[in-house]
Design goal:
Shape: globular
Structural class: alpha/beta
Order of helices and strands: HHHEEEEHHHEHHEHHEHHEHEEEEHEH
Helix content: 25-40%
Largest sheet: 6 strands, mixed
Number of strands: 13
Strand order of the largest sheet: 5-4-6-7-8-13
Number of helices: 15
């Protein structure tokens, strides 16, 4: 039986879908704002596939059903009736049906451990006085609560934050360096998860080593400290049980390729260079598995050749396809690695996000996602607003930030980060496989 307040929440969601009409971008933005700012989402936490893309094929009719679970272990069935052939998008008829089925009492949220680079950094480098890779100044954070620059390379929340939101948290776990200052409650805070990501880092320990960052190898050493503290606090058996249900999100690899292209010594063939990256990645994953990690959410390298900065090198503002070739080859190689490791290690589960195809889908279909600019940076200066840094007051700042794919030279906007996290969490096998992040979280 559905209680009244649950009916009220579902009514709000249904009304929101109806009021935004049949425009995917408007619906996406409305759902995102509801999840960020409304207490409804914190209680119900329904992951709604809000933007219903125009996939109507002229000679067929199609019905799509999506089933998601919210943090309270309830099921939401969302049924979309796609428009009939020859019917325009403006005449879409959408039937929204929601059924809430109650189950057992709430369980604890899984721990979230995040490693990687600037796409997941939530303030680590801000805590490193020697770091040369920083974003703790305006205009960064202009759309974060209280317009506060937090060290995120975004105008607001980043992908790590939104993934944590979808799992039931308010935002990403805090940086490891900020937590170790609270010695008395250390183990308790560790049970919620930690963010180790450091902007400028890569898979190789040589990547960014002169920039005062924390390499991926060092991030894993920090996790070793966490694992040791947990073992001392709750025992080896409980620690192993907790870590086996926790999620380990890793977003890395882009900087390795970017720095390679920026170097003056590009003598290593593509196949050999990528294999070196994947060999190092394998060692990192094996180390994490031996420390107790079992569930891995891996985010591959996006089409970095289509970021604003590389585009400035092309006379027609096109993507640098050679750089993109490295990104696609990295994906196929890391995919084979994960398949091999999961067959070797009993209990290992993974979800691989194809960031390349996810991003190219938006670049090739910007209107469907309510983006008006997928080439230039929202904040910066020069050609494509990507030849100088996003520093107030000299930087040029766009006013319609939700309509830009890129925030600065390389990083996505808050809106693009939400879309990326949403796709990773609930996307189809084309974008995330063999299961998506929500299925990974529920797979016990």
């Amino acid at each position: 039986m559905i209680v009244t307040k649950e009916l009220d929440r579902m009514a709000v969601m249904a009304l929101l879908i109806w009021s935004t009409g049949n425009q995917p971008g408007r619906t996406t933005r409305a759902i995102r704002l509801l999840m960020e700012n409304s207490q409804l989402s914190r209680h119900l936490f329904v992951l709604l596939w809000s933007f219903f893309m125009y996939k109507c094929v002229r000679n067929s009719e199609r019905m799509q059903r999506k089933i998601f679970r919210d943090r309270e272990n309830k099921k939401i069935l969302i049924l979309f009736l796609m428009a009939k052939r020859r019917v325009s998008l403006s005449l879409f008829l959408i039937i929204f049906l929601a059924m809430v089925v109650s189950h057992s009492a709430d369980g604890p949220l899984p721990g979230i451990f995040i490693l990687g680079d600037s796409t997941a950094d939530v303030g680590t480098n801000t805590l490193l006085p020697q770091s040369k890779v920083r974003s703790d100044f305006p205009y960064y954070g202009i759309d974060f609560p209280h317009s506060r620059p937090t060290g995120r390379f975004s105008n607001g929340f980043n992908t790590a934050d939104f993934l944590a939101k979808f799992l039931g948290y308010r935002r990403s776990p805090p940086p490891f360096l900020s937590i170790i200052r609270h010695g008395s409650s250390l183990s308790k805070r560790f049970l919620r998860g930690i963010n180790f990501a450091s902007a400028g880092s890569g898979i190789l320990d040589t990547t960014g080593q002169t920039l005062g960052i924390i390499t991926l190898g060092a991030q894993i050493q920090h996790f070793t400290t966490v694992q040791s503290n947990l073992t001392a606090a709750i025992g080896a058996e409980e620690t192993a049980k907790f870590l086996s249900k926790s999620l380990f999100f890793i977003s890395t690899g882009s900087n390795d390729i970017i720095y390679y292209f920026q170097s003056n010594n590009r003598t290593v063939p593509k196949e050999e260079f990528i294999q070196n990256l994947v060999d190092a990645y394998e060692n990192h994953l094996r180390t994490l598995f031996n420390l107790g990690a079992r569930k891995f959410g891996i985010i591959s390298v996006p089409p970095i050749g289509c970021c604003p900065s590389p585009r400035t090198l092309d006379p027609s503002d096109g993507c640098l396809e050679e750089m993109n070739d490295y990104a696609t080859f990295f994906y196929t190689t890391i995919e084979a690695l994960l398949q091999r490791l999961s067959s070797e290690y009993q209990g290992m589960k993974y979800s691989l996000g194809n960031a390349y195809d996810m991003t190219m889908n938006v670049i090739n279909n910007p209107i469907a996602f309510n983006f008006t600019d997928v080439k230039g940076a929202c904040c910066g200066g020069g050609k494509l607003n990507a030849e100088s840094f996003c520093v107030k007051p000299t930087a040029a700042l766009c006013s319609d930030r939700d309509e830009y794919l890129f925030w600065d030279m390389f990083h996505p906007t808050k809106q693009a980060s939400w879309l990326a996290a949403f796709t990773l969490y609930s996307g189809e096998p084309r974008f995330v496989s063999p299961i998506n992040f929500s299925q990974l979280a529920m797979d016990n």
